[in-house]
Amino acid sequence: MQRTTEAVLAQVADRERPYSGLSPAELADAVAEPVLPEEGVGLPDAIDDVTAAVLPHSVATSHPRCAAHLQCPPMVPGLAAEALLTATNQSLDSFDQAPAATVLEERVVDALCDLFGLPEEGDGVFTSGGTQSNLQALLLARDRYCARVFGRNVQSAGLPAEADALRVVCSEAAHFTAQQAAHHLGLGEDAVVTVPTDDRQRMDPDALAATLADLEAMSRQPFAVVGTAGTTDFGSIDPLDALAERAAAHDCWFHVDAAYGGAVALTDEYASLLDGIEWADSIAVDFHKLFYQPISCGAFLLRDGDDFEWMARNAAYLNPEAHDDGGVPNLVAKSTQTTRRFDALKPYLAFRALGREGMATLVGRTLELADEAAALLDAAEDFERLHDPTLNALVFRYRPREGMADAAVGRLNAAVRERLLEDGRALVARTEVDGVQSLKWTLLNPTCTVEDLAATLDVLRECGADALAGEVSA
Protein backbone atom coordinates (compact mmCIF):
# COMPACT_ATOMS: atom_id res chain seq x y z
CA MET A 1 0.00 0.00 0.00
CA GLN A 2 2.85 2.37 0.78
CA ARG A 3 4.41 1.56 -2.59
CA THR A 4 1.19 2.36 -4.43
CA THR A 5 0.79 5.63 -2.52
CA GLU A 6 4.31 6.63 -3.50
CA ALA A 7 3.58 5.70 -7.12
CA VAL A 8 0.50 7.93 -7.21
CA LEU A 9 2.39 10.83 -5.65
CA ALA A 10 5.25 10.39 -8.12
CA GLN A 11 3.23 9.93 -11.29
CA VAL A 12 -0.11 11.67 -10.75
CA ALA A 13 0.32 14.47 -8.22
CA ASP A 14 1.86 17.74 -9.46
CA ARG A 15 2.06 16.63 -13.09
CA GLU A 16 2.96 19.27 -15.64
CA ARG A 17 0.09 18.32 -17.93
CA PRO A 18 -3.18 16.42 -17.43
CA TYR A 19 -2.43 13.86 -20.18
CA SER A 20 0.69 12.52 -21.84
CA GLY A 21 -0.83 12.70 -25.32
CA LEU A 22 -0.18 9.07 -26.25
CA SER A 23 -2.33 7.58 -29.01
CA PRO A 24 -4.27 4.30 -28.57
CA ALA A 25 -1.56 2.42 -30.50
CA GLU A 26 1.18 3.88 -28.33
CA LEU A 27 -0.74 2.98 -25.19
CA ALA A 28 -1.12 -0.60 -26.42
CA ASP A 29 2.66 -0.78 -26.91
CA ALA A 30 3.20 0.51 -23.37
CA VAL A 31 1.24 -2.40 -21.87
CA ALA A 32 2.43 -5.10 -24.26
CA GLU A 33 3.79 -7.41 -21.54
CA PRO A 34 1.76 -10.64 -21.02
CA VAL A 35 -1.31 -10.12 -18.87
CA LEU A 36 -1.14 -13.69 -17.53
CA PRO A 37 2.50 -14.83 -17.63
CA GLU A 38 3.39 -18.40 -16.80
CA GLU A 39 5.30 -17.20 -13.76
CA GLY A 40 4.50 -14.04 -11.85
CA VAL A 41 7.00 -11.23 -11.45
CA GLY A 42 6.06 -10.56 -7.82
CA LEU A 43 3.95 -7.78 -6.38
CA PRO A 44 6.65 -5.07 -6.12
CA ASP A 45 7.67 -5.46 -9.76
CA ALA A 46 4.04 -5.68 -10.89
CA ILE A 47 3.29 -2.41 -9.10
CA ASP A 48 6.37 -0.85 -10.68
CA ASP A 49 5.18 -1.99 -14.12
CA VAL A 50 1.85 -0.24 -13.61
CA THR A 51 3.64 2.80 -12.23
CA ALA A 52 5.71 3.05 -15.41
CA ALA A 53 3.19 2.02 -18.05
CA VAL A 54 -0.26 3.07 -16.81
CA LEU A 55 -0.15 5.93 -14.32
CA PRO A 56 1.83 8.40 -16.48
CA HIS A 57 -0.69 7.96 -19.30
CA SER A 58 -3.85 8.23 -17.19
CA VAL A 59 -5.85 11.43 -17.13
CA ALA A 60 -4.85 13.49 -14.10
CA THR A 61 -8.31 14.47 -12.88
CA SER A 62 -6.83 16.62 -10.11
CA HIS A 63 -4.86 18.76 -12.56
CA PRO A 64 -6.30 22.31 -12.68
CA ARG A 65 -6.33 22.28 -16.51
CA CYS A 66 -8.32 19.02 -16.66
CA ALA A 67 -11.83 20.33 -17.35
CA ALA A 68 -13.41 18.07 -19.93
CA HIS A 69 -16.01 15.71 -18.51
CA LEU A 70 -18.05 15.17 -15.37
CA GLN A 71 -15.04 13.35 -13.94
CA CYS A 72 -14.15 14.96 -10.64
CA PRO A 73 -10.89 15.17 -8.75
CA PRO A 74 -11.47 12.78 -5.82
CA MET A 75 -10.98 14.26 -2.38
CA VAL A 76 -8.63 12.62 0.12
CA PRO A 77 -11.45 11.51 2.49
CA GLY A 78 -12.96 9.60 -0.43
CA LEU A 79 -9.63 7.92 -1.16
CA ALA A 80 -9.27 6.96 2.50
CA ALA A 81 -12.80 5.55 2.53
CA GLU A 82 -12.07 3.63 -0.68
CA ALA A 83 -9.15 1.88 1.02
CA LEU A 84 -11.25 1.04 4.09
CA LEU A 85 -14.26 -0.31 2.22
CA THR A 86 -12.18 -2.26 -0.27
CA ALA A 87 -10.01 -3.87 2.39
CA THR A 88 -13.02 -4.98 4.45
CA ASN A 89 -14.85 -6.13 1.26
CA GLN A 90 -18.36 -5.82 2.60
CA SER A 91 -21.26 -6.89 0.37
CA LEU A 92 -24.53 -5.06 0.92
CA ASP A 93 -26.78 -7.89 -0.30
CA SER A 94 -27.44 -9.22 3.20
CA PHE A 95 -27.15 -7.92 6.74
CA ASP A 96 -24.93 -10.80 7.90
CA GLN A 97 -22.35 -9.93 5.23
CA ALA A 98 -22.25 -6.23 6.08
CA PRO A 99 -23.89 -5.41 9.41
CA ALA A 100 -22.33 -2.02 10.17
CA ALA A 101 -22.25 -1.09 6.49
CA THR A 102 -25.96 -1.84 6.11
CA VAL A 103 -26.96 0.32 9.04
CA LEU A 104 -24.62 3.13 8.00
CA GLU A 105 -25.99 3.16 4.43
CA GLU A 106 -29.49 3.55 5.87
CA ARG A 107 -28.27 6.47 7.98
CA VAL A 108 -26.70 8.16 4.95
CA VAL A 109 -29.86 7.62 2.89
CA ASP A 110 -31.94 9.22 5.65
CA ALA A 111 -29.61 12.23 5.67
CA LEU A 112 -29.91 12.54 1.88
CA CYS A 113 -33.71 12.43 2.04
CA ASP A 114 -33.53 15.29 4.56
CA LEU A 115 -31.09 17.20 2.34
CA PHE A 116 -33.53 17.11 -0.58
CA GLY A 117 -36.64 17.79 1.49
CA LEU A 118 -38.29 14.40 1.11
CA PRO A 119 -40.87 13.40 3.73
CA GLU A 120 -40.32 11.01 6.62
CA GLU A 121 -41.43 8.01 4.57
CA GLY A 122 -38.64 8.65 2.06
CA ASP A 123 -36.09 5.92 1.46
CA GLY A 124 -33.33 5.01 -0.95
CA VAL A 125 -30.39 2.85 -1.87
CA PHE A 126 -26.88 3.39 -3.16
CA THR A 127 -26.21 2.76 -6.83
CA SER A 128 -23.31 2.82 -9.27
CA GLY A 129 -24.46 6.23 -10.55
CA GLY A 130 -27.05 8.11 -12.54
CA THR A 131 -27.53 5.48 -15.24
CA GLN A 132 -28.58 2.84 -12.71
CA SER A 133 -30.64 5.32 -10.68
CA ASN A 134 -32.54 6.57 -13.73
CA LEU A 135 -33.24 3.01 -14.84
CA GLN A 136 -34.54 2.10 -11.40
CA ALA A 137 -36.81 5.15 -11.33
CA LEU A 138 -38.48 4.25 -14.61
CA LEU A 139 -38.68 0.58 -13.63
CA LEU A 140 -40.67 1.41 -10.50
CA ALA A 141 -42.74 4.04 -12.29
CA ARG A 142 -43.65 1.59 -15.06
CA ASP A 143 -44.54 -1.24 -12.72
CA ARG A 144 -46.61 0.94 -10.39
CA TYR A 145 -48.51 2.35 -13.36
CA CYS A 146 -49.17 -1.09 -14.86
CA ALA A 147 -50.46 -2.38 -11.52
CA ARG A 148 -52.76 0.58 -10.94
CA VAL A 149 -54.06 1.09 -14.48
CA PHE A 150 -53.93 -2.39 -16.05
CA GLY A 151 -54.08 -4.57 -12.92
CA ARG A 152 -50.89 -6.23 -14.08
CA ASN A 153 -47.98 -7.37 -11.90
CA VAL A 154 -45.10 -6.85 -14.30
CA GLN A 155 -42.58 -8.51 -11.99
CA SER A 156 -44.36 -11.86 -12.24
CA ALA A 157 -46.47 -11.65 -15.41
CA GLY A 158 -44.44 -9.39 -17.71
CA LEU A 159 -45.62 -6.39 -19.68
CA PRO A 160 -49.31 -6.11 -20.57
CA ALA A 161 -50.45 -5.83 -24.18
CA GLU A 162 -51.19 -2.16 -23.56
CA ALA A 163 -47.50 -1.46 -22.91
CA ASP A 164 -47.07 -0.25 -26.50
CA ALA A 165 -48.91 2.90 -25.47
CA LEU A 166 -46.66 3.72 -22.49
CA ARG A 167 -44.63 6.93 -22.78
CA VAL A 168 -41.84 8.64 -20.83
CA VAL A 169 -41.53 12.41 -21.21
CA CYS A 170 -38.32 14.41 -20.76
CA SER A 171 -36.67 17.48 -22.26
CA GLU A 172 -34.75 17.41 -25.51
CA ALA A 173 -31.64 18.20 -23.44
CA ALA A 174 -32.12 15.34 -20.98
CA HIS A 175 -29.47 12.66 -20.55
CA PHE A 176 -29.55 9.74 -23.00
CA THR A 177 -30.22 7.33 -20.14
CA ALA A 178 -33.96 7.99 -20.48
CA GLN A 179 -33.86 6.33 -23.90
CA GLN A 180 -31.45 3.69 -22.66
CA ALA A 181 -33.72 2.80 -19.75
CA ALA A 182 -36.77 2.60 -22.03
CA HIS A 183 -34.86 0.11 -24.19
CA HIS A 184 -33.80 -1.99 -21.21
CA LEU A 185 -37.35 -1.96 -19.82
CA GLY A 186 -38.80 -3.39 -23.02
CA LEU A 187 -40.61 -0.20 -24.04
CA GLY A 188 -38.21 0.82 -26.78
CA GLU A 189 -36.50 4.16 -27.24
CA ASP A 190 -39.47 5.41 -29.28
CA ALA A 191 -41.46 5.41 -26.04
CA VAL A 192 -39.49 8.47 -24.93
CA VAL A 193 -41.06 11.75 -26.01
CA THR A 194 -38.96 14.90 -25.77
CA VAL A 195 -40.19 18.39 -24.95
CA PRO A 196 -38.65 21.60 -26.34
CA THR A 197 -36.41 23.71 -24.14
CA ASP A 198 -36.29 27.46 -23.63
CA ASP A 199 -33.36 29.73 -24.46
CA ARG A 200 -31.57 28.48 -21.31
CA GLN A 201 -31.89 24.81 -22.33
CA ARG A 202 -34.54 24.13 -19.66
CA MET A 203 -37.72 22.16 -20.27
CA ASP A 204 -40.63 24.47 -21.08
CA PRO A 205 -43.46 23.71 -18.60
CA ASP A 206 -46.19 24.89 -20.99
CA ALA A 207 -44.73 22.70 -23.73
CA LEU A 208 -44.72 19.80 -21.25
CA ALA A 209 -48.40 20.34 -20.46
CA ALA A 210 -49.22 20.47 -24.18
CA THR A 211 -47.19 17.32 -24.85
CA LEU A 212 -48.92 15.38 -22.09
CA ALA A 213 -52.34 16.50 -23.32
CA ASP A 214 -51.48 15.59 -26.92
CA LEU A 215 -50.28 12.13 -25.91
CA GLU A 216 -53.46 11.44 -24.00
CA ALA A 217 -55.54 12.70 -26.93
CA MET A 218 -53.73 10.15 -29.14
CA SER A 219 -54.53 7.36 -26.64
CA ARG A 220 -50.91 7.22 -25.51
CA GLN A 221 -50.29 6.80 -21.81
CA PRO A 222 -47.52 8.92 -20.30
CA PHE A 223 -46.55 7.40 -16.96
CA ALA A 224 -43.36 9.29 -16.07
CA VAL A 225 -41.95 12.79 -16.42
CA VAL A 226 -38.19 13.21 -16.06
CA GLY A 227 -36.85 16.58 -14.94
CA THR A 228 -33.15 17.36 -15.19
CA ALA A 229 -31.13 19.17 -12.53
CA GLY A 230 -27.93 19.72 -14.47
CA THR A 231 -27.81 18.89 -18.17
CA THR A 232 -24.56 17.39 -19.39
CA ASP A 233 -23.67 20.13 -21.88
CA PHE A 234 -24.99 23.35 -20.35
CA GLY A 235 -25.58 22.44 -16.70
CA SER A 236 -29.15 23.68 -17.05
CA ILE A 237 -31.73 22.95 -14.36
CA ASP A 238 -35.35 22.50 -15.37
CA PRO A 239 -38.04 24.52 -13.49
CA LEU A 240 -38.75 21.61 -11.16
CA ASP A 241 -41.67 23.24 -9.31
CA ALA A 242 -43.61 23.78 -12.52
CA LEU A 243 -42.76 20.33 -13.88
CA ALA A 244 -43.91 18.67 -10.66
CA GLU A 245 -47.25 20.46 -10.95
CA ARG A 246 -47.75 19.36 -14.57
CA ALA A 247 -46.73 15.78 -13.81
CA ALA A 248 -49.16 15.59 -10.88
CA ALA A 249 -52.00 16.98 -12.99
CA HIS A 250 -51.56 14.03 -15.37
CA ASP A 251 -50.91 11.45 -12.62
CA CYS A 252 -47.33 10.87 -13.83
CA TRP A 253 -44.41 9.73 -11.73
CA PHE A 254 -42.02 12.69 -11.42
CA HIS A 255 -38.35 11.72 -11.47
CA VAL A 256 -35.52 14.25 -11.11
CA ASP A 257 -32.16 13.36 -12.59
CA ALA A 258 -29.93 15.37 -10.24
CA ALA A 259 -26.82 13.29 -10.91
CA TYR A 260 -24.91 16.44 -11.83
CA GLY A 261 -26.59 19.31 -10.01
CA GLY A 262 -27.79 17.67 -6.80
CA ALA A 263 -24.74 18.85 -4.86
CA VAL A 264 -25.94 22.47 -4.88
CA ALA A 265 -28.41 21.39 -2.18
CA LEU A 266 -25.43 21.62 0.18
CA THR A 267 -25.10 25.36 -0.37
CA ASP A 268 -27.10 28.31 0.91
CA GLU A 269 -26.47 30.46 -2.15
CA TYR A 270 -27.42 28.01 -4.91
CA ALA A 271 -29.85 25.55 -3.24
CA SER A 272 -32.84 27.48 -4.62
CA LEU A 273 -31.89 26.22 -8.10
CA LEU A 274 -33.42 22.92 -6.95
CA ASP A 275 -36.75 24.36 -5.77
CA GLY A 276 -39.40 21.73 -6.44
CA ILE A 277 -37.13 18.71 -6.08
CA GLU A 278 -38.91 17.95 -2.81
CA TRP A 279 -42.00 17.02 -4.86
CA ALA A 280 -40.16 14.35 -6.84
CA ASP A 281 -41.30 10.74 -6.60
CA SER A 282 -37.66 9.76 -7.10
CA ILE A 283 -34.25 11.41 -7.37
CA ALA A 284 -30.94 10.35 -8.87
CA VAL A 285 -27.85 11.84 -7.26
CA ASP A 286 -24.17 11.12 -7.98
CA PHE A 287 -21.32 11.51 -5.53
CA HIS A 288 -18.59 10.99 -8.13
CA LYS A 289 -19.32 14.38 -9.67
CA LEU A 290 -19.75 17.50 -7.53
CA PHE A 291 -19.48 15.62 -4.24
CA TYR A 292 -15.85 14.77 -5.17
CA GLN A 293 -15.93 11.05 -4.41
CA PRO A 294 -14.09 8.30 -6.33
CA ILE A 295 -16.03 6.44 -9.02
CA SER A 296 -18.45 4.79 -8.63
CA CYS A 297 -20.85 6.26 -6.10
CA GLY A 298 -24.48 7.28 -6.54
CA ALA A 299 -27.83 7.06 -4.80
CA PHE A 300 -31.44 6.53 -5.77
CA LEU A 301 -33.98 8.18 -3.49
CA LEU A 302 -37.73 7.61 -3.22
CA ARG A 303 -40.33 10.00 -1.88
CA ASP A 304 -42.29 7.00 -0.59
CA GLY A 305 -40.14 4.02 0.37
CA ASP A 306 -43.11 1.69 -0.02
CA ASP A 307 -42.67 2.00 -3.78
CA PHE A 308 -39.73 -0.39 -3.48
CA GLU A 309 -42.43 -3.09 -3.27
CA TRP A 310 -42.63 -3.09 -7.07
CA MET A 311 -39.18 -4.70 -7.31
CA ALA A 312 -38.74 -6.43 -3.94
CA ARG A 313 -38.00 -10.12 -3.72
CA ASN A 314 -36.86 -12.58 -1.08
CA ALA A 315 -34.21 -15.28 -1.40
CA ALA A 316 -33.93 -17.90 1.33
CA TYR A 317 -30.14 -17.69 1.51
CA LEU A 318 -30.01 -13.87 1.64
CA ASN A 319 -33.17 -12.18 2.87
CA PRO A 320 -35.87 -14.67 3.89
CA GLU A 321 -39.28 -13.26 4.64
CA ALA A 322 -38.72 -13.99 8.32
CA HIS A 323 -36.03 -11.31 8.31
CA ASP A 324 -38.57 -8.74 7.16
CA ASP A 325 -40.91 -9.76 9.96
CA GLY A 326 -38.05 -9.60 12.46
CA GLY A 327 -36.85 -6.15 11.44
CA VAL A 328 -33.56 -7.26 9.86
CA PRO A 329 -32.49 -4.61 7.33
CA ASN A 330 -33.03 -5.78 3.75
CA LEU A 331 -31.17 -3.67 1.20
CA VAL A 332 -30.94 -6.21 -1.63
CA ALA A 333 -34.72 -5.90 -2.14
CA LYS A 334 -34.17 -2.22 -3.00
CA SER A 335 -31.39 -2.70 -5.52
CA THR A 336 -30.99 -3.92 -9.08
CA GLN A 337 -27.63 -5.35 -7.94
CA THR A 338 -26.99 -8.32 -5.69
CA THR A 339 -23.34 -8.08 -4.67
CA ARG A 340 -22.83 -4.40 -3.95
CA ARG A 341 -19.98 -2.31 -2.55
CA PHE A 342 -20.07 -0.23 0.64
CA ASP A 343 -19.91 2.99 -1.37
CA ALA A 344 -21.93 4.90 1.22
CA LEU A 345 -18.78 5.07 3.33
CA LYS A 346 -17.24 7.58 0.91
CA PRO A 347 -19.73 10.44 1.30
CA TYR A 348 -20.15 9.54 4.98
CA LEU A 349 -16.44 10.02 5.69
CA ALA A 350 -16.35 13.19 3.59
CA PHE A 351 -19.42 14.67 5.31
CA ARG A 352 -18.04 13.86 8.75
CA ALA A 353 -14.63 15.31 7.90
CA LEU A 354 -15.71 18.54 6.20
CA GLY A 355 -19.27 19.10 7.39
CA ARG A 356 -21.94 20.71 5.26
CA GLU A 357 -20.15 24.04 5.32
CA GLY A 358 -16.87 22.61 4.04
CA MET A 359 -18.56 20.64 1.26
CA ALA A 360 -20.61 23.68 0.25
CA THR A 361 -17.46 25.78 -0.01
CA LEU A 362 -15.99 23.37 -2.57
CA VAL A 363 -19.16 23.31 -4.66
CA GLY A 364 -19.67 27.07 -4.48
CA ARG A 365 -16.11 27.78 -5.55
CA THR A 366 -16.57 25.92 -8.84
CA LEU A 367 -19.79 27.81 -9.62
CA GLU A 368 -18.00 31.09 -8.95
CA LEU A 369 -15.19 29.92 -11.23
CA ALA A 370 -17.71 29.41 -14.05
CA ASP A 371 -18.72 33.08 -13.79
CA GLU A 372 -15.05 34.08 -13.89
CA ALA A 373 -14.56 31.86 -16.93
CA ALA A 374 -17.50 33.52 -18.68
CA ALA A 375 -15.91 36.93 -18.11
CA LEU A 376 -12.60 35.63 -19.43
CA LEU A 377 -14.25 34.42 -22.65
CA ASP A 378 -16.10 37.71 -23.06
CA ALA A 379 -12.82 39.59 -22.89
CA ALA A 380 -11.24 37.39 -25.58
CA GLU A 381 -11.89 38.51 -29.15
CA ASP A 382 -11.14 35.07 -30.61
CA PHE A 383 -13.57 33.06 -28.45
CA GLU A 384 -17.35 33.17 -28.23
CA ARG A 385 -19.41 32.10 -25.23
CA LEU A 386 -22.64 30.27 -26.07
CA HIS A 387 -24.63 30.66 -22.82
CA ASP A 388 -24.70 31.97 -19.29
CA PRO A 389 -23.52 29.31 -16.83
CA THR A 390 -26.05 27.80 -14.41
CA LEU A 391 -23.74 25.33 -12.71
CA ASN A 392 -20.08 25.00 -13.70
CA ALA A 393 -20.32 23.88 -17.32
CA LEU A 394 -19.50 26.44 -19.99
CA VAL A 395 -19.81 25.87 -23.75
CA PHE A 396 -17.82 28.08 -26.13
CA ARG A 397 -16.14 28.17 -29.51
CA TYR A 398 -12.80 29.24 -30.90
CA ARG A 399 -13.56 31.72 -33.70
CA PRO A 400 -10.28 33.48 -34.56
CA ARG A 401 -11.54 35.47 -37.56
CA GLU A 402 -14.62 37.57 -38.10
CA GLY A 403 -16.98 36.33 -40.76
CA MET A 404 -16.03 32.65 -40.46
CA ALA A 405 -18.91 30.43 -41.53
CA ASP A 406 -20.32 28.13 -38.87
CA ALA A 407 -19.29 25.06 -40.86
CA ALA A 408 -15.67 26.24 -40.91
CA VAL A 409 -15.80 27.08 -37.22
CA GLY A 410 -17.14 23.62 -36.46
CA ARG A 411 -14.36 21.91 -38.41
CA LEU A 412 -11.77 24.11 -36.74
CA ASN A 413 -13.03 23.40 -33.22
CA ALA A 414 -13.07 19.65 -33.90
CA ALA A 415 -9.48 19.88 -35.12
CA VAL A 416 -8.46 21.99 -32.12
CA ARG A 417 -9.93 19.46 -29.68
CA GLU A 418 -8.12 16.61 -31.45
CA ARG A 419 -4.79 18.44 -31.34
CA LEU A 420 -5.36 19.39 -27.71
CA LEU A 421 -5.69 15.73 -26.70
CA GLU A 422 -2.44 14.94 -28.51
CA ASP A 423 -0.78 17.94 -26.86
CA GLY A 424 -1.88 16.99 -23.33
CA ARG A 425 -1.29 20.38 -21.69
CA ALA A 426 -5.00 20.87 -21.08
CA LEU A 427 -8.22 18.91 -21.52
CA VAL A 428 -11.60 20.28 -22.55
CA ALA A 429 -14.68 18.50 -23.83
CA ARG A 430 -16.46 18.85 -27.13
CA THR A 431 -20.13 18.89 -28.02
CA GLU A 432 -22.39 20.00 -30.84
CA VAL A 433 -24.62 23.06 -30.59
CA ASP A 434 -27.03 23.81 -33.44
CA GLY A 435 -25.04 21.45 -35.63
CA VAL A 436 -21.71 23.20 -34.97
CA GLN A 437 -18.82 21.54 -33.11
CA SER A 438 -18.10 23.45 -29.90
CA LEU A 439 -15.82 23.22 -26.88
CA LYS A 440 -16.78 22.87 -23.23
CA TRP A 441 -15.26 23.49 -19.84
CA THR A 442 -16.60 21.28 -17.04
CA LEU A 443 -15.16 23.10 -14.04
CA LEU A 444 -15.37 20.58 -11.22
CA ASN A 445 -11.98 21.33 -9.68
CA PRO A 446 -12.12 23.81 -6.77
CA THR A 447 -8.33 24.29 -6.96
CA CYS A 448 -8.53 25.55 -10.54
CA THR A 449 -7.99 29.30 -11.00
CA VAL A 450 -8.86 31.80 -13.69
CA GLU A 451 -5.13 31.86 -14.52
CA ASP A 452 -5.33 28.12 -15.29
CA LEU A 453 -8.25 28.82 -17.61
CA ALA A 454 -6.38 31.63 -19.34
CA ALA A 455 -3.47 29.23 -19.87
CA THR A 456 -5.89 26.73 -21.41
CA LEU A 457 -7.12 29.36 -23.85
CA ASP A 458 -3.51 30.04 -24.87
CA VAL A 459 -2.98 26.33 -25.56
CA LEU A 460 -6.21 26.27 -27.58
CA ARG A 461 -4.93 29.20 -29.61
CA GLU A 462 -1.70 27.34 -30.36
CA CYS A 463 -3.62 24.23 -31.40
CA GLY A 464 -5.89 26.44 -33.50
CA ALA A 465 -2.92 28.04 -35.26
CA ASP A 466 -1.55 24.57 -36.03
CA ALA A 467 -4.91 23.46 -37.38
CA LEU A 468 -5.23 26.55 -39.60
CA ALA A 469 -1.65 26.14 -40.84
CA GLY A 470 -2.36 22.53 -41.74
CA GLU A 471 -5.47 23.62 -43.58
CA VAL A 472 -3.46 26.11 -45.63
CA SER A 473 -0.70 23.62 -46.45
CA ALA A 474 -3.29 21.03 -47.47
Question: Which stretches of 5+ consecutive residues score pLDDT under 50?
Answer: none
Summarize the biggest pleated sheet.
Answer: 7 strands, mixed
Helix content: 40-55%
Mean pLDDT: 95
How are strands sequenced across the largest beta sheet? Answer: 2-8-7-6-5-3-4
Report how far apart the termini are. Answer: 52 Å
Radius of gyration over C-alpha positions, nearest whole angstrom: 24 Å
Secondary-structure class: alpha/beta
- Give the quaternary arrangement of the chains: single chain
What is the H/E order? HHHEHHEHHEHEHEHEEEHHEEHEEH
Structure, explained:
- The protein has 474 residues and is an alpha/beta fold.
- The chain is 42% helix and 14% strand.
- It has 14 helices and 12 strands.
- It has helices at 2-11, 24-30, 43-53, 76-88, 99-115, 130-150, 154-157, 177-184, 205-217, 240-249, 321-326, 345-379, 406-423, 450-473, and strands at residues 66-67, 123-127, 166-171, 192-195, 221-228, 253-258, 282-286, 298-302, 383-385, 393-398, 427-433, 436-442.
- A 7-stranded mixed sheet has the order 2-8-7-6-5-3-4, with helices on both faces. The chain has a 5-stranded mixed sheet with strand order 1-11-12-10-9, with helices on one face.
- Helix 1 (2-11) runs parallel beside helix 3 and helix 4 runs antiparallel to helix 12.
- The longest helix is centred in the last third of the chain and has 35 residues, at 345-379.
- The radius of gyration is 24 Å and the shape is globular.
- The mean pLDDT is 95.
